[in-house]
């Protein structure tokens, strides 16, 4: 799973959000490390909707423009759970390697 996809699904795990809300949540959750651009976000949302991982929750009119809210689907939640578990295993492997001194000459953090 690509990193932007992981962060988008994570942002939608708690509640339905519109595009700018997703951008803000991703920036906050990643400590500013991930700054989604609108083009990247909406291309990813279109792809995720086509894959059945997100869907439109509702639309509302704000200042004459349509604001579309997205929510995670059951398939999206399953994909996020699987990716979270994969990342957890990777972190465990990295921590274990550091503890076992697999990297000689590198001081543990």
UniProtKB/TrEMBL annotation:
<protein>
    <submittedName>
        <fullName>PadR family transcriptional regulator</fullName>
    </submittedName>
</protein>
<dbReference type="InterPro" id="IPR036388">
    <property type="entry name" value="WH-like_DNA-bd_sf"/>
</dbReference>
<dbReference type="Pfam" id="PF03551">
    <property type="entry name" value="PadR"/>
</dbReference>
<dbReference type="InterPro" id="IPR052509">
    <property type="entry name" value="Metal_resp_DNA-bind_regulator"/>
</dbReference>
<dbReference type="InterPro" id="IPR005149">
    <property type="entry name" value="Tscrpt_reg_PadR_N"/>
</dbReference>
<dbReference type="InterPro" id="IPR036390">
    <property type="entry name" value="WH_DNA-bd_sf"/>
</dbReference>
<feature type="domain" description="Transcription regulator PadR N-terminal">
    <location>
        <begin position="8"/>
        <end position="81"/>
    </location>
</feature>
């Amino acid at each position: 799973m690509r990193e932007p996809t992981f962060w988008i699904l994570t942002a939608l795990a708690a509640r339905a959000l519109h595009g700018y809300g997703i951008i803000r949540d991703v920036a906050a959750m990643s400590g500013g490390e991930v700054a989604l651009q609108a083009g990247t976000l909406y291309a990813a949302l279109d792809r995720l909707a086509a894959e059945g991982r997100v869907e439109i929750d509702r639309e509302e009119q704000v200042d004459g423009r349509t604001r579309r809210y997205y929510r995670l689907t059951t398939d999206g939640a399953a994909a996020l759970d699987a990716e979270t578990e994969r990342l957890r295993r990777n972190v465990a492997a990295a921590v274990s390697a550091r503890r076992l001194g697999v990297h000689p000459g590198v001081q543990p953090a």
